[in-house]
Specification:
Strand content: under 5%
Number of strands: 2
Structural class: mainly alpha
Order of helices and strands: HEEHHHHH
Radius of gyration: 66 Å
Largest sheet: 2 strands, antiparallel
Length: 249
């Protein structure tokens, strides 16, 4: 079975109580030192024994400085959180003021609704009219301010939309220019391709020299004879048969 919970109560034996105090005091001082080192905290520990002997611990800061800091903090909390008697006194003073303020507001609200205007004097009516005029001025001022802010916002939106419209128009113009240049390039390519398909003219005939010895001379002589034959009239005529008979006789 596990160890049961130890009930805390005063140790009746004086010697045992003194031994326990000495052990627990040493452990408490050790824990205070550990938390000041590990957590970088300002720790001040004050212990009085049953005989009135003082045991204290403080980290690098002095005990007096830590106690002074504690007192300042405690006084500040007391100022922020008043006691019950002070709070009740304050509420007793504030309650009539709040009640009178609520009553005045309700009365003005009835006046604004045109209720209970009969018992008002001329001075009261003038004051009420002045209050209404002041309220209308505040309302108009607020309304004009909101309208100016709305107009400014709309103008900013209009400028933004105009800039976007100009940007889109510029992009559209650039796209049209690119498409036009692309179409011109396509037409030039088609023209060049169609011209390349036209058949070239036949090559000129090249006359090679004859390899026969004296071929040039014979060719020239034959050409001269043909020219003379064509230039001279023909002397060979056909003789009719009757003339041949006379010649034979």
């Amino acid at each position: 079975m596990g160890r049961g919970r130890v009930q805390l109560r005063r140790i009746e034996n004086k010697i045992s109580r003194q031994v326990t105090f000495s052990k627990r005091r040493t452990g408490l001082l050790k824990k205070a030192h550990e938390i000041s080192v590990l957590c970088d905290a300002d720790v001040a520990l004050i212990v009085f024994s049953n005989k009135g002997k003082l045991f204290e611990y403080s980290n690098d800061s002095s005990m007096e400085r830590i106690i002074e800091r504690y007192e300042r903090h405690l006084s500040a909390e007391r100022q922020l959180v008043p006691t019950d008697s002070e709070s009740q006194a304050n509420w007793s003073l504030e309650c009539p003021k709040l009640m009178s303020t609520i009553e005045a507001l309700q009365r003005n609200l009835r006046y604004f609704r045109e209720e209970e205007l009969g018992p008002l004097s001329l001075r009261d009516l003038q004051l009420l009219e002045q209050q209404i005029d002041n309220s209308l001025k505040c309302i108009r001022t607020r309304k004009n301010k909101l309208m100016h802010e709305s107009i400014s916002e709309l103008q900013k939106k209009e400028k933004t939309l105009q800039d976007q419209n100009n940007m889109l128009a510029k992009k559209l113009k650039d796209n049209e220019k690119t498409q036009t240049e692309y179409a011109q390039c396509e037409q030039q390519n088609l023209a060049q391709n169609s011209s390349s398909f036209i058949q070239p003219p036949p090559p000129a005939t090249i006359q090679f020299p004859s390899l026969t010895i004296g071929g040039n001379y014979q060719a020239k002589e034959g050409a001269n004879k043909e020219a003379e034959t064509q230039s001279q009239p023909s002397t060979n005529t056909v003789i009719p048969p009757w003339m041949l008979r006379h010649v034979n006789r």
